[in-house]
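Fold this complex.
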Amino acid sequence: MNTQAQILLTQIDELPCLRIQHPKASALIALQGAQVLEYTPAGAEPVIWLSETAGFKGGQSVRGGIPVCWPWFGDLKRNPAEVQRSVQGDPALAHGWVRNQPWLLEHTSIDADAARIRLRYPTPLGLGSPWAAQVSLTLDILVGAELNLQLTTVNWSDAPITYSQALHSYFAVSQIDKVQVLDLDQCRYIDTLQQWRECADADPLAIRQETDRIYLDTPATIRLLDLGWQRIIHINSDTSRSAVVWNPWIEKSARLSHFADDAWQRMLCIETARVLDDCVTLPPGEQDTLRLNIGLSAPA
Ligand code: TA6
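Structure:
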């Protein structure tokens, strides 16, 4: 049967969402946080993981998908001093203030190749630093044989702004002990579980314990090899030189909200970032885009 190409507005509990049906892929996007929740190419296993126990409540980021972390990543106090000075955010908020806020649906289109959606964070709505009213933030999402996200910040103010950001992608895996993260061997990383000390590995990364690493000087493409599903997920960004790899493993899973105790076996976060040495300073009148392209191939 030829799948109709359509973008449907739907409500899941408290959250308005867009359900994308297309011959090349299906997807689910929450307007809150402009959060991709699901992405599954035609004929493939899901690429993006959504928690089986996810909540869909106003003001709460949904567990899974691709949360937008902006204008800071992670713990604000662990960010460079210039980010903290510039954003003047609430340190109690992890991952910035836009991922649990309502975004506006600005544009949709659909053709034989893909569905395209543009969402806009309605500054100065909601929380914000002194410059929040003078910065625009949009997310362009392309759903097709590949998934493409472009997070664009425009600085309309008369002073430079400094921020960190990440597209916090939760990837679905067949079984965590059947996957390897390629292309990060030789990259230096900060191990947040070992007093944030700097390390480096010589081999591809296999996940065998709680893992929470910030890689720096990363290559444009990071590959997630999944032998269980006989595929490679290509995570490509030409505008990011930092990436976060996170799996909560057993103990932390039990402490996480909306996260089944065994869900650590079915997901792995590889987050496309601009953090630490790679954070962004944007001069007045300029714009910056964080681009992410996700595609599949068979293992070599
Ligand atoms: O990206 C890794 C991380 O910073 C982890 O330390 C963990 O906190 C994860 O993000 C999820 O954070 P959240 O606030 O969404 O539960």
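The pocket of 6-O-phosphono-beta-D-tagatofuranose is lined by residues 61, 74, 94-95, 168, 212, 244, 246, 269, 271 (CB under 6 Å).
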